[in-house]
Amino acid sequence: MNMRINWVILCALVLLVIENAVVPWIIPSAWSERLLPHLCFIVTLFVATFAGRHPAFLFGLGFGLLQDLLSYGHLIGPYGFGMGLIGYLAGLASERKSTTIGFFIGTVIISGLLLDSIIYFIYKLFLITDLQYTYVFYWQVAPTALLQLLIALLMYVPVRRFLVKPSLASGEENPE
Residue 60 is part of a domain; what is its CATH number? Predict the structure, then answer.
């Protein structure tokens, strides 16, 4: 699994570049502050589901801090904290329950809502925003969570095939 995690890190770096360089051109300017896809966060949830809580924590912390530095520079740390915490919690939940697509959908929705809510409350704590939570939930949190769910569903089958090793039920020898 270690080699595959290295490939996932490389893919997440590519997704980080895409998120910061290509996605702003794709999303209409009127929705640019409303839809934030957080592609590395989605990969963090895949790592949590298929690799466990500890790699997901480190993955979320590292890419969250990169995201803080690259694109959302109001504070250093909210995305690192949020993505690390949610990656750990999602990994903990997936270790206690069998991984199905229904469970993964629930994880993506709840985690997406939780991440943007954590960011909002950290910004509210440090007086960076004065918006009401109901407005932020309607304007940014809910649409972003739905966009993340759509992207995660599009990525589910290829990522699962890549991260989950095929079973040896057919009697074949392990190539590793």
Answer: 1.10.1760.20
**62 lies in which domain range?**
2-23+34-161
Distance of alpha carbon 99 from alpha carbon 95, whole angstroms = 8
- What whole-number distance in Å separates Cα of residue 165 and Cα of residue 14? 23
Round to whole Å and give the CA distance between 97 and 114: 20
Phi-psi region of 52 (alpha: psi -120 to 50; beta: other; left: phi over 0): left
Residue 29 domain flag: no
Q: pTM, whole model, 2 decimals?
A: 0.86
Work out how many domains the chain is built from and give that number.
1
- pLDDT per residue, tens digit, the chain (176 aa), is 555 788 889 999 999 889 888 888 888 877 777 788 899 999 999 999 988 899 999 999 999 999 898 876 678 899 999 999 999 999 999 988 777 899 999 999 999 999 999 999 999 999 988 999 999 999 999 999 999 999 999 999 988 888 776 544 444 444 44
Tell the residue number behind the tokens 């910061």, with chain if given: 20
What span, in angstroms and rounded, lies between the C-alpha atoms of 41 and 82?
A: 10
CA angle centred on 23, ends 68 and 58, rounded to 5°: 35
